[in-house]
Write a structure and sequence with these properties.
By secondary structure, this protein is of the alpha+beta class. The chain is built from four helices and 13 strands.
């Protein structure tokens, strides 16, 4: 099932997205029918043995910009990432510290919940798993709450998203500062954002500034407003059931 367009960027971004969520939930009726033939998608397999383009997605030729309406301007020398919660080594990583970690280049796809997919991007950055190893999570840590520098302009509420730690430890989950051979653009989360290629892209926070390791799940900004916790693109797991 396809929607005609993503939320209107000229309107209140939060109001438009909330209206889009309700419209799509009504259309789908939560009847995902994931067992139907071809329900996972079509085309050749991707890097993980799944259909390259998930069902319900259309390949984008350019990278659309979706956000809360706030693009924080953060110079690399002013950027910092706090690691906290249930970890042995709480720390604050600055730009020099990030660049001092092992740098990797990874090619992956980017699937937005609003039904478009950007294919075959080349990312430069560090693996989240390497950050987690530095932090050394406690055995009871099972979830993450990720907080960004941007806020919803009307309320001042910061952007957050939650992930299962097991999902975040996949080797293609990264904190990236480069895209296709250039610095990550500000409008897409530069200087540093998270990417989650096997989940819908809202799980990868732009302008990332804090990661908390938690024992219990704590819902993020869009998860509180109707998005799914699982966010599996190949099962169109877009929305919560309540």
């Amino acid at each position: 099932m396809q929607d005609s367009a993503p939320p209107d960027p000229t309107d209140s971004k939060l109001a438009s997205r909330l209206a889009w969520i309700e419209r799509r939930r009504a259309q789908e009726g939560q009847a995902l029918n994931v067992e139907a033939e071809g329900a996972l998608g079509s085309g050749p397999e991707n890097r993980h043995g799944l259909p390259r383009l998930p069902q319900g997605q259309t390949e984008a030729k350019k990278w659309p910009v979706l956000d809360l309406g706030h693009h924080p301007a953060i110079a690399p020398e002013d950027w910092a990432l706090e690691l906290g919660g249930l970890i042995e080594n709480p720390q604050c990583l600055d730009w020099a510290g990030l660049m001092g970690m092992e740098q990797v280049e990874e090619q992956s796809d980017f699937h937005c919940v609003t039904t478009w997919s950007l294919m075959d991007s080349c990312w430069n950055g560090v693996r989240f798993a390497d950050l987690a190893a530095r932090a050394n999570p406690a055995p009871e840590a099972r979830h993450l709450l990720v907080t960004a520098y941007d806020v919803e302009p009307m309320s001042g509420v910061p952007y957050t998203t939650n992930l299962r730690l097991a999902d975040a430890l996949q080797p293609d989950v990264m904190l990236v500062h480069g895209w296709n051979g250039a610095p990550l653009p500000r409008e897409h989360g530069g200087p540093v954002r998270m990417i989650t290629p096997r989940l819908y892209a809202w799980k990868g926070a732009k302008w990332i500034r804090r990661i908390d390791f938690l024992a219990e799940e704590q819902l993020g900004f869009w998860e509180q407003r109707g998005y799914s916790n699982g966010a599996d693109p190949w099962r169109e797991d877009r929305f919560s059931s309540s």
